[in-house]
Amino acid sequence: MLILLSVAPVLLLAQSSYNFDFEEREQKSGNSKNWLWGMDSSQRYHFSLDSTNTYSGKYSTRIDNQVDGEKLSGAFHTSIPTVFTGKKIKLQGYIKTENVEGWTGLWIRIDGAREFTNMKDKGIKGTNDWKLYSIELDLKEGAQEIVLGGLLSGRGIVWFDKLSVTIDGIDIAVAPKEDLLQYNPKPGETQWLKTHSLPLKYVNAGNGFTDLQPMKSFVGDARIVALGECTHGTSEIFKMKHRILEFLATEMNFRIFSIEANMGEAQAINKYVLDGLGDPKRLLDTMYVWPWNTQEVLDMIDWMRSYNIKNPTKKLQFTGFDMQLGKGSADILCLFAQKYAPDMAVLTDSIVSQVIRIQGRYLKAVEPVVFSMLEANLKSLGQFLEQNKFSISKKLGEREFEWLSHNITLLYQFKELAKAERWGFGYSFRDQSMAKNVKWLLQQNPGQKIVLWAHNGHVNRQQNLMGGFLTDNGHKDDMRVIGFSTGKGTYTAVKLGVGVSSNNVLVEPVAKTFEKHAMTTGWEQFFIDIRKQNLNNKNAGWLSKRIGIRGIGAQEMISAAQFRWGILPDLYDAIIYLDHTNASKCFKAK
């Protein structure tokens, strides 16, 4: 879960320590520090630190696959924030192989610039002693993060050692970086920011909307308002998002709320919000996603229930759009069969069992046959529902039938996401699927308007992210994307070796970040419209350049790794800044 909930599928690193030679080990797991070993659902690929076969030093990284059959891939990787001024990145390292059938080699992916390369066309095969290999990739504008490592595709054994990375031929440890320490906001830039920002008087809901009224012209006739967050565990950001939902529902007739949570499990909370069924605190716990299992989200859900009681003709819905876990959707299908189609109960029971098996893939690898069985069972159940659509719709109602059927779609997405993860591209598939689920919600609610709640790294308009997919598929003009930013304080996140912790600290903003500029205003919180038509002033030019904004997912991050880099007006329509924030009040974590 902590991997999937992060903006990127790996832990960002402080600039000073990359462990490219694999000499540092994690004390608890024994794995190589700062490297993520691939999750392989086939159980074929085994990763280890090898002290008996090295090119230099104490350890090499070894991938071993001795099983015949379908050729998959096992990969390991690390990640580096792109704060470099160079144009080309080069990864090189020593590789040794033994009886490789298929190929092995190095790979690089640059997120934000959609660049990727590996050694497939010149992959290493057979048995070879230690030899130096290298690959290169352009470091283009828009790059946010460098992800790199090694992989084995097929059968055999491969060892990697003494990797190194250079930017324009200069070792990454000393490569020129953005002048993060030498740059400070100019007085004219601070004045422009204060002049064009909207001070926000309150963070908590229930304080009226006087200070939010100017946001009406910003939202306009948009059908989607996407609310980001720069961490998955910040109390004041959650409270502000609650307040904006209150404003949009009360003042602008928004009727659907949808959060970065499993769509199946969210349906149970919707029954509470609409009809008062169930215990909302217990239902939050069953969503399996600790970032939302908080007092702040519970307060918002209780407000939604109160709002619906007072406004029975214009009720708010609580929905999700994610599919990381499938148990909720599988249970819904199982309950349907028990009540309305007992002949299908054996099939749905089997689906539940297979989903549980795949859902536990982070603790134990999954045999390929489980994926095949689930796909076949979903196909059979889908055919049954389609063939009996008329009779089932008479019992459930057409709307409930469409929701029931969509759970099959969600389980297909869940299955394919689990398979995509082993290639390191699960994040893109997940975001595309989330965008499709948002569009499905809009199709099911003609004319209704929706508020989205997710991380900055999902709502923004970058290609391959949810906001980018929505932008490219019909919602460029009727969507408003609001990113969130914070200057100092604490946040809840997974601390490696500890678990979910609320004492993680926000580092002081480095220069050339939005936060560094925002702090100079002296304001506690404000809203700023950064659409390009509003930046026709020389003192706004810094916003049109590549700068950082805080971006922490579910894991603790340190140093400059807490910031992600890009051209903000390309990603967001507006930013809400909160100067000082505290960790969310998380009930417990699973």
Question: Any chance you could write out the topology, listing elements then pairs?
Answer:
Blueprint: H1 2-5, E1 36-37, E2 46-50, E3 60-65, E4 73-81, E5 88-111, E6 115-118, E7 124-138, E8 145-167, E9 170-171, H2 187-196, E10 197-199, H3 215-219, E11 224-227, H4 235-252, E12 256-262, H5 263-275, H6 280-285, H7 295-310, E13 317-322, H8 327-340, H9 345-359, H10 368-387, H11 389-396, H12 398-421, H13 426-444, E14 450-453, H14 456-459, H15 466-472, E15 479-495, E16 499-506, H16 514-519, E17 525-529, E18 547-550, E19 563-566, H17 568-571, E20 574-581
Parallel strand pairs: 11-14, 11-15, 12-13, 12-14, 15-20
Antiparallel strand pairs: 1-4, 2-3, 3-8, 4-8, 5-6, 5-7, 5-8, 8-9, 10-17, 15-16, 17-20, 18-19
